[in-house]
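quick one before i forget lol
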Amino acid sequence: MILEAAMLHIKPGLTAQFEESFRQASTLISSIDGYLGHELQHCLEDDHKYLLLVKWRSLEDHTVGFRESAQYQEWKALLHKYYSPFPVVEHFTSVSLG
């Protein structure tokens, strides 16, 4: 399992619209093969900051399966207008602690 993480900085005054657009966009990402789940967390200290976490079966399920899909084009149209600056997206894998 791969964890995608992105810190999203939303333009001032647009958080309510962003959250509504994100609800719509959630159905797009969840339809992709290899998608395992996602969550959006709202920062307590900064009203315009969110943390997006998405679980994927593999890195390619995100970078190829989603990013090269028609659903991603719709995702971009719904959400990218809210970001300032554009987020850095990183991928993580769990560390065995036992």
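fyi The first helix runs from residue 15 to 29.
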